[in-house]
Specification:
Elements lengths: L6 E7 H6 L5 E2 L11 H16 L6 E9 L2 H12 L10 E5 L1 H18 L4 H11 E5 L6 E5 L1 E2 L5 H8 L13 H12 L5 H8 L2 E8 L5 H10 L6 H10 L4 H19 L3 H13 L10 H9 L5 H22 L7 H10 L7 H12 L5 H20 L8 H10 L1 H11 L3 H10 L5 H9 L3 H4 L6 E5 L22 H10 L6 E5 H7 L4 H9 L4 H4 L9 H18 L14 E2 L17 E6 L2 E3 L4 H15 L1 H11 L3 E2 L8 E5 L2 E4 L4 H15 L5 E5 L1 H5 L1
Parallel strand pairs: 2-4, 2-7, 3-8
Antiparallel strand pairs: 1-8, 3-4, 5-6, 9-10, 11-17, 12-13, 12-17, 14-16, 15-16
Helix pairs in contact: 2-7, 2-8, 4-5, 4-7, 10-13, 11-14, 12-13, 12-16, 12-18, 14-16, 15-17, 16-17, 17-19, 18-19, 20-27, 24-25, 28-29, 28-30, 29-30
Length: 696
């Protein structure tokens, strides 16, 4: 066999590799900063716990670690890191790929070491072999402990101060990923669990790839990280579901469940999984910039033995069949339900998580058709009214899924709160462009969806005052457009796309009416079979007064068709339930002014950022609902502790309980959401995003 000459790849035990007395790893200057956040640490710790509980023969593969033994680069990298090293460091490995994983493992092991160093010297010595080695200072020759991983000088001192537990006074308030992730590991692993975590760590394996002097490090790095199209969320889910099964079991799941899901959802399979997870979890699922759908799936289904997988897969298949009908309502046999599904498509797929569950209940006989129609009408009213008054329909459906799970009355109350009032809608219809004009006018005129669907085939939108009238256009047959004053022209233009100036007209009549003066259009309107349009023939002249009068008339019809559901509650000023607040990674620019205010159970809090919200919620609940806080913190592993167990930013709750304040923004918001749910009051807490928060 012909072997490679410039690449040496060996499968190794990761901890044994790191524990080797000769292992020293230098991070070169060109490497990016350490970026892993608490979410990544949480997943790594979960994987280690899982493999720790597995059979002795099972291991966990963490990928490949790419390095070079180039001694010149090693020396230069080490000098850049620390200002000097011993001659024994000349064989250091220069890390090309794997910095993030190795650094995170070192932080975890440092946290374990500091947890047990006073109580279990033997185990602490095992951790020390991974973390440090004794070396002689190049300048003085004095021996000292150095970390085996040597970041470059931009952050070497911070990293070493964490791993060696040598932080100076005042450094507890500094912000760094090293401190945050170390604190996370300290908080999550109690002393009694350290031996189990150590067993899991000893089952980690990787491929150590060492390059020779003639190897092209950049080309190999790009080959490892950039070759091929990245797997998409639904492909990752597919692999996750089938991984670990026998070939026969894989074939069974593929044929019985996965292929029908693919056939039902087609090109929309990715959105199906996202909508399914929003429906089941009652939480928004982030897509952009992260593997959000796949991560949410793994969290919802952490372990899938064959029997559990069959049960869940049967449910997935049923929901995919419902999703197929949502995508193509013509497949529904009940004409009334089909019409509702057609109308819902006007607003896109934003409400599919809620509608999918309701439709499946309808198919299985757990929901009456009248109740489904009622839900559909409320969702149309919600979305249309919000568009009319200039509000977004984003990030609404998760809260509605949660409300429906509580019961039909809770859903109606939730819908009522976020559906704009009649007064706001009247103003919007009077002065703003009519959204989804064909759908609105069609329903007002009683045109069934089955006749033409959202496009209302055979009918066109007629602007009674044209969008750009010619000089000879006239509203009364006497004065021409050129004779109108600038103010009159501007007034007509401002109302041209509002409800009162729009009509549905048959295609052949619309062609003849195009850009004609109003007197010339009246005979064409008289021939229309659309009642609302036919009535325009009886109007003598057309101008701003006629538009206003027709707007009033049609607005009353509008409010009758698209009702505000239930008892009129507060029009919520576009508040966002705290459970739907956006989890930001790290500390993005503008985080200090993310919120305009917070509504806490009817109280108005001047709270502008997640750090203050975190502090205030935990302190308030410590006074009002302490058992819930204790239960949440015990299960989560923080953020409340009975001692200031490590250096960092703490706040005192009482003489024996302390709140750790050193988390990143994503973890803080997650903790706020979790403890409010534990206390049973999450539905009563809302945030109002500021301008900064809206654009973050």
């Amino acid at each position: 066999m012909v072997t490679a000459t410039n690449v040496d790849a060996t499968a190794v035990n990761t901890i044994a590799w790191l524990s080797d007395p000769g292992t020293t790893i230098v991070v070169p200057v060109y490497q990016r900063q350490y970026r892993w956040d608490i979410g990544g640490c949480e997943q790594l710790l979960g994987d280690i716990r899982s493999v720790a509980r597995s059979d002795d023969g099972q291991t966990h593969f963490i990928g490949s670690i790419l390095s070079t033994a180039n001694t010149a680069a090693a020396s230069a990298g080490d000098d850049a890191s620390s200002g000097g090293s011993s001659s024994s460091d000349d064989a250091a490995l220069v890390l090309i790929d794997g910095q993030q994983r190795i650094t995170t493992l070192m932080l975890l092991i440092a946290a374990l070491h500091h947890t047990v160093k006073h109580d279990d010297p033997a185990l602490a010595a095992e951790f020390e072999r991974v973390l440090v080695r004794e070396t002689a200072d190049r300048a003085s020759g004095t021996p000292r402990l150095r970390t085996k991983l040597r970041p470059h000088r931009a952050w070497a001192e911070v990293f070493e101060s964490v791993v060696l537990d040598r932080r100076e006074p005042g450094e507890e308030l500094r912000e760094s990923r090293f401190d945050d992730n170390y604190a996370f590991f300290r908080s999550q692993v109690r002393a009694e669990e350290v031996p189990a975590i150590w067993r899991g760590l000893q089952k980690l394996e990787h491929v150590a790839i060492t390059l020779g002097a003639e190897a092209n490090a950049q080309q190999i790095f790009e080959s490892l990280n950039s070759t091929g199209e990245p797997l998409r969320d639904h492909e990752l889910i597919h692999n996750y579901v089938l991984m670990g099964l026998s070939h026969a079991e894989q074939s069974e799941i593929e044929d019985e469940y996965w292929l029908p899901i693919e056939q039902n959802t087609g090109e929309s399979i990715a959105s199906f999984w996202r909508h399914y997870l929003v429906m089941t979890t009652g939480r928004e699922v982030v897509v952009a910039g992260e593997r959000g759908v796949y991560d949410a799936f793994r969290q919802e289904f952490p372990r899938l033995d064959l029997a559990t997988l069959r049960r869940h897969a049967a449910e997935w298949r049923e929901y995919s069949a419902a999703y197929r009908v949502l995508l193509d309502p013509s497949q529904e046999s009940d004409p009334i339900v089909a019409e509702q599904l057609h109308w819902l498509t006007t607003f896109g797929r934003g409400m599919y998580p809620l509608v999918m569950r309701a439709y499946r209940d309808l198919v299985q006989g757990r929901l009456e058709a009248a109740a489904f129609v009622g839900l559909s009408e409320m969702l149309q009213s919600l979305q249309l009214r919000r568009i009319v008054v200039g509000l977004t329909n984003d990030r609404l459906v998760a809260r509605l899924c949660r409300a429906r799970a509580e019961g039909p009355d809770d859903l109606v109350r939730a819908l009522s709160r976020i559906t704009p009032s009649d007064e706001r809608v009247k103003v919007g219809l009077k002065y703003t462009e009519l959204p989804h004009a064909a759908y609105v006018l069609g329903r007002l005129a009683g045109v069934p969806a089955s006749t033409g669907g959202a496009a209302l085939a055979g009918l066109e939108i007629e602007h009674i005052v044209p969008l750009a009238p010619g000089d000879s256009w006239s509203g009364d047959g006497v004065r021409e457009w050129a004779d109108y004053s600038d103010d009159e022209q501007n007034s007509h233009r401002a109302l041209a796309e509002t409800l009162g100036n729009l009509a549905l007209l048959e295609h052949e009549l619309a062609e003849r009416a195009f850009d004609q003066s109003f007197p010339a259009k009246r005979p064409l309107f008289a021939r229309s079979e659309v009642p609302l349009t036919e009535r325009l023939a009886s109007v003598e002249s057309w101008g701003t007064a006629a538009i206003a009068a027709r707007t009033v008339e049609l607005t009353e019809r509008f409010l009758a068709v698209w009702k505000r559901p239930g008892t009129a509650l507060i029009d919520d000023d576009n508040l966002t339930p705290v459970l739907d607040a956006v989890r930001r990674r790290g500390w993005p620019r503008g985080w200090e002014r993310e919120f305009e205010y917070v509504e806490y159970r009817g109280e108005h809090w001047e709270v502008y950022d997640v750090k203050y919200l975190f502090n205030r919620v935990f302190k308030r609940l410590w006074a009002d609902a302490r058992p819930a806080v204790v239960a949440f913190s015990d299960r989560r592993g923080g953020p409340i502790y009975d001692a200031r167990a490590w250096t960092g930013h703490w706040d005192e709750l009482d003489e024996t309980h302390f709140l750790y304040m050193g988390w990143d923004s994503k973890y803080m918001l997650t903790a706020v959401q979790g403890v409010l749910e534990e206390a049973g009051i999450a539905s009563e807490v809302f945030v109002k995003y500021s301008y900064f928060g809206a654009v973050m």
